[in-house]
TrEMBL record, chain A:
The keyword Protein biosynthesis does not apply. It comes from Terribacillus halophilus. Residues 123-412 form the NADH:quinone oxidoreductase/Mrp antiporter transmembrane domain. One of its GO terms (cellular component) is plasma membrane. It is found in: Cell membrane; Membrane. It comes from the Bacteria. It is a multi-pass membrane protein. This is Multicomponent Na+:H+ antiporter subunit A. PANTHER family: NA(+)/H(+) ANTIPORTER SUBUNIT, NA(+)_H(+) ANTIPORTER SUBUNIT A. The keyword Cell membrane applies. Signal peptide: none annotated. Belongs to the CPA3 antiporters (TC 2.A.63) subunit A family.
TrEMBL record, chain B:
This is Multicomponent Na+:H+ antiporter subunit D. One of its GO terms (molecular function) is NADH dehydrogenase (ubiquinone) activity. Keywords: Antiport, Cell membrane, Membrane, Transmembrane, Transmembrane helix, Transport. It comes from Terribacillus halophilus. Coiled coil: none annotated. It is found in: Cell membrane; Membrane.
Automatic annotation (TrEMBL), chain C:
It is a multi-pass membrane protein. This is Multicomponent Na+:H+ antiporter subunit C. Its main location: membrane. It comes from Terribacillus halophilus. It is found in: Cell membrane. One of its GO terms (cellular component) is plasma membrane.
């Protein structure tokens, strides 16, 4: 089990080495062999009926992150899909990709993706699931941009990455909440605690976050916009990631949590509306496309919407139908993508306006396409599986509206509308399927295109042929598939055992058949008279699609941020300081008064009395005057010398306040500093040439300066008057001589009690000296970088 | 054994001094520097193991008992950060010869680097608020010397702003210390904690704490105090940028974690919200700067800021998940930022420009560089299973536990935008048409190995998180109960 | 007396900030010098003023001025001196290299 899931990663590690020999053996064979053996492994599990296999490894238990893999019906169903289609795609790509391409990279990404996908569907631990989830986004990014020299590819890759990561991060939030609410990181355990989740205050947020994850990954409206752009990837990638597997991861996520969510009416409303809207919008947009892959991309969007809607219904029949359609969609859409790949490969174009009449040139491709496209359209033929699941879809929609007990309030109204919406959305599906097939294979094509086209080699045809055989096989033996594959999966989703579901071509004249017929008839009508309807397809502008929103946001993320940032980080020191200082001052003042801490009642001050205090007061006045003088002085020399007065004033204060050491130090250092000032600024221009400052700027400066001074003053006063504890200095006074052996307490503190401070104070000086030395001596020429 | 606590300061200090004497002999200096860096890593690994097995080490310098002398405390948090610092120092010394000119090397380059680390390590171990100021000055002075080293035009222009802004915050720092001394009568952190906890007039303590918050937040580049950072960090040599990006802001964050869990968590209703909202704004504005930049080094430099925001938010969340998230984020961000600066420096060197719009298709000639850059981007955005994810998940969980939904949304959005900023640069530089750097195909290996060495650690911190995470969670518990620290330091005082 | 000194220090702080907000480098540096004076005065005042003799042990004296703030100031003065000298040289080099002492002309832009 563990080997099956980790194998893709291990082989991906080896691929770069294997790829060196690509001219002897196509690297794709390795990937093909790997995926095939994984497929066979899971097949044996299916056949032996041995489900619920467990593998457990404690990875980061402190985080709640374990590697616990298990296979229930749902996991097995998806695992088979992933490895089976994976094998076919790997085989197909061998013939699709030239040896000149970077095959090593391609298969590394592909295998990473496959491993990650298998990890998603088999993980029991939510964080492991999340890890694999993000890995699929990353590998999808790398695969879309496989031809990284094309701008369209990298743009598409970026788009898909942003949108899927948006969902990914939402998923992280949702899963963290689930963990918080249930206290467990194991999905199986979480599912047993449905009541806790449903009753929690977090429930709405959990649903929103998980839906965001599912809708972005599974390309639901309005997040579907990344999928059409992802078509820049090589076609095998589109077939694999962007139709059969990765885009189903979102559906899988919802299916996984359905046992809990289906109890919620809000979930029904949200998911059904999103699903039906996407179904409609996707199929409507598909008709407008001219690129074959574009049609298929929008068609995928719409089909995903349909499955999403069924998950939203949450009824037994709907869940079963959803699973059934996931399988069918993988078969017919996979083969259609491969057919488009062949057409592109052979004719060199995917533009439907240039194509036509390929039926004669490429009959096998034609057969593949007609079966797959008609299956997609839901044409009522007993060999087309698409019809079966669409019938189920209609039936479950009908049942919902027929079930009088279903839902309350808006939910029941919605349930009544559902069948109509389902039919309306499906009509366009029929139209674009016809359009896809008939425009490509019948009629005439441009002669240049038609000349060289022919069916490709057998190798390239094998995969689509197998897939189309799948379409037919499923249609002929629906109940075999149902019993062995679909029912176990549906049971796992539903949370309880369903009664055996038998699938028939003919149900009698039931509403679902009627709905199918309406779709087919109106579809044929719409298609055959489509020239009259071109206006209809232009009615709803593509601008609504959210693409505009995306480009506006992306542009803004470049231009608006730049504007904003240039404004903030302007390079102006004055602006930096002004903002920093006023922010600090205002917030501190707010806290000071907000906490009511400006309390001067206990102020213990030494008395001021004239004339004893005259010296201090005089010095204080002189210092203020000097500070003022040096601030307004227009001559640099005067300014510096007056500044010296402030310093000398301070040293006199030190003397008056019984700090002789300080006074001495201050005196000498002030002197040196003034000299340094004069030395450095001797050659500099005078202040006089200063242009007059704007008055408003001056006033702002004065306000900020007073604010800051005031703040320091008030906090200082408040701090001084609220001396909550005695200072620790008595110890120094007592022990200075006894233990430190010195009379001068300050000195003893400096060299002994707090010797470390002094050591590193000297270090600072030493670094400054070396720094000044290299500043003066080391002058590197050169550019700005 | 308690003397071991001085080793984190002593080893780089002695190395710095010794290297000052050998500065003329470049080859010898390089080898000695490398040797010291290795010894440092080994010693710090030993210390971490020692601390984890035997318990924290408290050194009373000069044998003066707490709170009167200066106390050095090597607890698991300090030991972990110091080890990380030593790893970054090793990578820097390893990378330096390939990007620093010989002339520059001969001008005490290695001395400055080792003294910078001395200051950083000192700040991590000291248990004394004023001593913290002194070590701040040591590391700042070394950083002034390094940022101006080379004396190019832009370098001088930006570094003078850097010096002036830091000078203001230093002066605010000493003044705030004096206020605290007035109120609580001590500068020893454990005693401050004890007295603050016993105090009944909390308002004034909170007010002074706010001042200190701004001092550390200026060093840590929080909103709106981050303006000085981006441009001044990109002007020196990539090695210096890497050291700055990895270490300097983180010392600010460390000081916030230390003082605000130990001493100042007295009025949580104010403090927590302050941390959370400053953190939120820091994330948003930082990432806006990153998105706005077209210069590869600036993109990396701006990305320092949102990471600081994440850490601040974690402190504000103030539960085990929040704090351990903060600490884990701190540890891994130090390493990945250092790596990113080295990578960005290499890109700029190879391309001959920092402007990404002039680059393209670089992956053709430099695939390893490209993928490392891409990987670092994923780490930054917190994509699992890399190290950024571990911290982010803890923070998200912690924020939910506290009911801070808005903060979670901002965190997740910021992650997305970080990803956008890095991936867009990646696409521009490495993909598309163009042959940037193809003429220097073989030359860049010696650039890449130190960066790759750091990337290995990043990956390990993600995939092998279990090796570190329990310790970090233990540290978070220990920070939530400051009693342990007080008893550790003040044991003899009673 | 302490109130007067705190007010004085606050005023010095204000002048310092005003100078820091100017665009001329010399003015800014004058501001930082004032700033350190203000800070040191704050530290001294916070340890109470004139409560006893100078902190030099002499026989018969019971009360001494709080010595710890003085020790801290000494450390801080020396450090400030180191920073200021480096700053002055840096300013000198900046002005010489960039040809202006007006910080508004030293904004730079985001592209270099």
């Amino acid at each position: 089990m563990i080997i099956a899931i980790l194998m893709p990663f291990l082989i991906a590690l080896c691929i770069p080495f294997i790829a060196k020999f690509k001219y002897r053996i196509h690297t794709g064979y390795v990937a093909f062999a790997a995926s095939l053996s994984i497929f066979l492994y899971f097949l044996t599990l299916l056949i032996s009926g041995k489900t619920d296999i467990l593998y457990h490894y404690s990875w980061i238990p402190s985080l709640g992150l374990d590697l616990t893999f298990y296979t229930d019906g749902l996991a097995l169903f998806f695992a088979l899909l992933i490895s089976g289609i994976g094998a076919l795609v790997a085989f197909y790509s061998i013939h699709y990709l030239d040896l000149e391409e970077r095959l090593g990279s391609f298969y590394v990404y592909l295998l990473l993706f496959m491993g990650a996908m298998l990890g998603i569907v088999t993980s029991d631990n939510i964080y492991a699931l999340y890890t694999f989830w993000e890995l699929t986004s990353v590998s999808s990014f790398l695969l879309i941009s496989f031809w990284f020299n094309r701008k369209a590819s990298t743009d598409g890759a970026l788009k898909s990455m942003l949108i899927t990561f948006l969902g990914g991060f939402a998923l992280l939030g949702g899963l963290a909440l689930l963990h918080l609410v249930t206290g467990s990181a194991s999905i199986r355990e979480i599912l047993t605690k449905g009541d806790l989740i449903l009753g929690s205050d977090w429930f709405p947020l959990i649903v929103v976050l998980l839906l965001l994850a599912a809708c972005t990954k599974s390309a639901q409206f309005p997040f579907h916009i990344w999928l059409p752009d992802a078509m820049e990837a090589p076609t095998p990638v589109s077939a694999y990631l962007h139709s059969a597997t990765m885009v189903k991861a979102g559906l899988f996520l919802l299916l996984r949590f359905t046992p809990v969510f289906r109890e919620s009416e809000a979930f029904f409303i949200a998911v059904s509306i999103i699903g039906l809207l996407t179904l409609f919008w996707g199929s409507y947009m598909a008709v407008r496309q001219t690129d074959l892959k574009g049609i298929l991309a929008f068609s995928t969007v719409s089909q995903l919407g349909m499955i999403m809607a069924m998950i939203g219904y949450g009824t037994e029949a709907a869940i079963f139908a959803a699973i059934f359609h996931i399988l069918n969609h993988a078969t017919f859409k996979g083969s259609l993508f491969m057919a488009v790949g062949i057409i592109d490969h052979e004719t060199g174009t995917r533009d439907i306006r240039r194509l036509g009449g390929l039926w004669k040139l490429m009959p096998i491709t034609g057969i593949i396409s007609v079966l797959a496209a008609f299956s997609m359209a839901g044409v009522p033929l007993p060999i087309l599986n698409g019809f079966y699941s669409k019938e189920e879809f209609f039936a479950s929609s009908w049942d919902l509206s027929a079930d009088r007990a279903f839902g309350t309030g808006f939910a029941s109204v919605l349930a009544d509308i559902v069948p109509y919406a389902a039919v309306a959305g499906s009509i366009f599906t029929f139209v674009y399927s016809m359009y896809f097939y008939f425009r490509t294979f019948t009629g005439k094509s441009e002669t240049t295109v038609a000349k060289k086209a022919h069916d490709p080699k057998f190798g390239m045809l094998l995969s689509p042929v197998l897939l189309v055989s799948g379409v037919i096989l499923i249609s002929i033996f629906p109940n075999w598939f149902s019993r062995h594959l679909l029912l176990p999966a549906a049971n796992a989703v539903y949370g309880e055992t369903m009664e055996a579901h038998s699938i028939h071509f003919w149900h009698g004249l039931v509403p679902a058949l009627l709905m199918s017929l309406i779709v087919v008839i109106s579809g044929i009508l719409l298609y055959s008279t489509r020239s009259y309807w071109t206006g209809l397809y232009k009615l709803l502008p593509g601008r609504l699609s959210g693409n505009n929103v995306y480009s506006v946001i992306l542009n803004a993320s470049e231009k608006q941020t730049k504007k904003l940032n240039d404004h903030i980080v302007s390079g102006s020191l004055r602006q930096y300081n002004a903002i920093i200082i006023s922010f600090i001052s205002i917030l501190t003042l707010l806290v000071l008064f907000g906490t009511n801490s400006f309390d001067l009642s206990n102020m213990d001050t030494s008395p001021v009395s004239l004339p004893q205090s005259l010296p201090e007061l005089a010095v204080a006045v002189i210092m203020i005057a000097a500070a003022f003088g040096s601030t307004v002085s227009q001559k640099k020399l005067t300014a510096v010398i007056i500044l010296g007065v402030v310093g000398y004033g301070l040293s006199i204060l030190f003397v008056l306040f019984r700090a002789p050491d300080l006074a001495l130090t201050q005196l000498s250092i002030e002197t040196i500093t003034v000299v340094l000032f004069l030395l450095c600024f001797r050659h500099l221009p005078e202040f006089k040439r200063e242009r007059k400052e704007k008055l408003s700027k001056k006033i702002t400066n004065i306000i900020i300066a007073s604010l800051c001074g005031l703040m320091m003053m008030l906090v200082g006063l408040a701090a001084y008057s609220q001396r909550l504890f005695p200072a620790i200095s008595d110890y120094f006074i007592e022990n200075s001589y006894k233990l430190g052996g010195g009379d001068n307490i300050v000195n003893v503190i400096l060299v002994d009690f707090r010797g470390l401070d002094t050591l590193f104070e000297i270090t600072v000086l030493a670094i400054a000296a070396l720094g000044i030395y290299s500043l003066i001596k080391l002058r590197q020429k050169g550019g700005d970088r | 054994m308690t003397n071991f606590a001085i080793l984190p300061i002593l080893i780089p200090f002695l190395a710095g001094i010794l290297l000052a004497f050998t500065h003329k002999r470049i080859l010898l200096t390089r080898r000695l520097a490398m040797m010291f860096a290795l010894i440092n890593v080994a010693a710090m690994t030993f210390l971490l193991i020692l601390v984890l097995t035997e318990g924290s080490i408290v050194l009373e310098t000069g044998n003066w008992m707490a709170p009167y002398g200066i106390i050095l405390v090597l607890d698991p948090l300090s030991a972990l950060l110091i080890l990380t610092t030593s790893i970054i120092l090793l990578a820097a010394v390893w990378y330096a010869p390939s990007s620093v000119s010989e002339e520059q090397e001969s001008f005490y380059f290695y001395t400055f680097i080792f003294l910078l680390v001395t200051g950083v390590s000192g700040a991590f171990v000291t248990g004394d608020l004023f001593n913290l100021f002194v070590f701040f000055e040591v590391l700042l002075m070394a950083s002034y010397a390094l940022i101006t080293h080379g004396g190019k035009k832009v370098q001088l222009r930006e570094s003078i702003k850097y010096v002036l802004i830091n000078l203001f915050s230093s002066m605010l720092f000493v003044t705030a210390i004096s206020y605290i001394y007035a109120v609580l009568g001590t500068v020893n952190m454990a005693q401050l904690a004890e007295r603050a906890a016993a105090a009944d007039q909390l308002g004034i303590i909170t007010t002074v704490a706010i001042l200190l918050f701004f001092v550390f937040a200026t060093k840590g580049a929080a909103f709106p105090l981050y303006y000085w950072l981006p441009r001044s960090y990109i002007v020196p040599n990539p090695v210096v940028s890497a050291l700055f990006g990895a270490l300097l802001t983180k010392v600010g964050v460390y000081s916030l974690i230390r003082t605000f869990t130990l001493i100042f968590h007295q009025q949580p209703e104010i403090m927590d919200q302050l941390f959370i909202w400053i953190g939120n704004l820091t994330m948003l504005f930082g990432v806006i700067g990153a998105l706005a930049s077209r210069n590869i080094k600036l993109i990396v430099a701006y990305n320092i800021i949102p990471a600081i925001g994440f850490m601040l938010v974690g402190i504000g969340i103030f539960n085990n998940d929040g704090l351990s998230g903060s600490i884990y984020y701190l540890l891994q961000d130090m390493i990945v930022k250092a790596a990113l600066f080295l990578l960005a420096g290499t890109i700029a060197t190879l391309a001959g420009t920092s402007d990404i719009s002039k680059m393209g298709g670089m992956i053709r000639s430099h695939p390893a560089l490209g993928w490392m850059f891409f990987l670092a981007g994923l780490v930054l955005a917190g994509v699992p299973p890399f190290s950024g994810f571990i911290g982010k998940l803890l923070l998200v969980r912690g924020a939910f536990e506290k009911g801070e939904t808005a903060t979670v949304i901002i965190m997740l959005l910021t992650s997305l935008l970080i990803l956008l900023s890095i991936v867009r640069a990646f696409i521009q530089v490495f993909w598309g048409e163009g042959e940037t750097g193809s003429e220097q195909k073989r030359k860049h290996l010696r650039h890449l190995i130190p960066a790759g060495f750091l990337m290995l650690f990043t990956v390990f911190l993600g995939i092998g998180a279990e090796a570190i995470l329990p310790t970090v969670q233990h540290i978070a518990d220990y920070l939530l109960n400051p009693q342990a620290y007080m008893e550790l330091v003040l044991k003899e005082g009673r | 007396m302490e109130i007067i000194m705190i007010v004085l220090a606050g005023i010095l702080f204000g002048f310092a900030v005003y100078n820091i907000l100017q665009k001329r480098l010399l003015r800014i540096i004058i501001g930082t010098a004032l700033l350190s004076h203000a800070a040191h005065l704050f530290i001294l005042t916070m340890g109470k003023l004139k409560r006893g003799a100078s902190p030099v042990l002499t026989e018969g004296t019971e009360n001494y001025t709080d010595p710890l703030p003085q020790a801290l100031i000494l450390t801080s003065i020396v450090i400030s001196f180191g920073v200021t000298s480096l700053l002055l040289v840096l300013a000198y080099r900046t002005v010489k290299t960039n040809g202006t002492d007006n910080m508004e002309e030293l904004r730079g832009n985001n592209h270099d």
